[in-house]
């Protein structure tokens, strides 16, 4: 398996089609038609290819500042990590997470953040669940329009510390959209 970092603006039509098919397979009836992003383009992706250079998995990444209990924190957000159903449970998801860890090490990133319905993969890779009250910009993913500000305690929030900064369960203002 080979993992490549690809900036969103460098994705060609062939890779775009493969990513779209993987997202539709992984998130059926949820993902918008003809798009390879849900609410907003990620800054870049890690793409996993198998031995025949076929798409095996992908993860989008978003870098931004958020406000945690009144202080700025630098967040690398994980968006839509997914692996082809034909080759799941072979360590590809963990390999993508390890690639994210390598990327984040030594950079100006305080935490890696994600939201997960199924937490086992992330728990096994050093992520911890938190239940913060979160605020975010609500976006209608179909019409791509703002709908206001959302606020609620999030049970799906998971965090991995990158730098020597402490996370707390205070209010998290995402200063943007919810992944």
Task: Provide tags for this entry.
GNAT family N-acetyltransferase; globular; 179 residues; Aminopeptidase; ten-stranded mixed sheet; alpha+beta
Q: Summarize this, please?
A:
The chain has 179 residues and is α+β, with helices and mostly antiparallel strands. The protein has helices spanning 13-26, 92-104, 120-123; strands at residues 2-7, 44-49, 55-68, 71-83, 111-115, 128-129, 133-140, 145-153, 157-161, 172-177.
What does this structure look like?
With 179 residues, the chain is an alpha+beta fold. It has one domain: Gcn5-related N-acetyltransferase (GNAT) (Aminopeptidase, 3-Layer(aba) Sandwich). The chain contains 3 helices and 10 strands, in the order βαβββαβαβββββ. Strands 1, 2, 3, 4, 5, 6, 7, 8, 9 and 10 form a 10-stranded mixed β-sheet that branches. A hairpin with a 2-residue loop joins strand 3 (55-68) and strand 4. It is globular and about 50 Å long. Residues 6-147 form the N-acetyltransferase domain. It comes from Paenibacillus lacisoli.
């Amino acid at each position: 398996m080979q993992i490549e970092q690809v900036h969103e603006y460098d994705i060609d039509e062939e890779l775009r089609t493969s990513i779209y098919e993987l997202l539709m397979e992984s998130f059926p009836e949820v993902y918008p038609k003809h798009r390879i992003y849900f609410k907003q383009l990620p800054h870049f992706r890690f793409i996993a290819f198998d031995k025949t250079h076929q798409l095996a998995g992908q993860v989008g990444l978003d870098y931004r500042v958020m406000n945690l209990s009144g202080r700025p924190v630098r967040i690398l957000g994980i968006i839509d990590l997914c692996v082809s159903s034909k080759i799941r449970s072979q360590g590809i998801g963990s390999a993508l997470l390890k690639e994210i860890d390598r990327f984040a090490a030594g950079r100006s990133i305080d935490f890696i953040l994600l939201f997960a319905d199924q937490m086992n993969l992330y728990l096994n890779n050093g992520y911890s669940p938190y239940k913060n009250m979160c605020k975010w910009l609500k976006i209608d993913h179909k019409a791509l329009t703002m709908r206001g500000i959302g606020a609620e305690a999030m049970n799906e929030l998971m965090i991995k510390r990158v730098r020597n900064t402490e996370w707390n369960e205070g209010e998290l203002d995402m200063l943007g959209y919810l992944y």
